[in-house]
Amino acid sequence: MPAVVLIGAQWGDEGKGKATDVLGRRVDHVVKFNGGNNAGHTVVIGDEKYALHLLPSGILTPGCTPVIGNGVVIDLAVLFEELEGLQARGVDTSRLVVSANAHVIPPYNRVLDKVTERFLGSRRIGTTGRGIGPTYADKMNRVGIRVQDLFDEGILRQKVEGALDFKNQVLAKIYNRRAITVDEVVEELLSHREALRPMVADTGLLLQEALGRGETVLLEAGQATLLDVDHGTYPFVTSSSATAGGACTGSGIPPTSIDRVVAILKAYTTRVGEGPFPTELLDDMGEHLRKTGHEYGTTTGRPRRCGWFDAVIGRYAARVNGVTDFVITKLDTLSGLDTVPVCVAYDVDGVRHDDMPMTQSDFHHAKPVYEELPGWWEDISHCRDFDELPANARRYVERVEELVGQRVSAIGVGPGRDEIIVRHDLLDA
Question: Is 19 in contact with 218 (CB distance < 8 Å)?
Answer without folding.
Answer: no
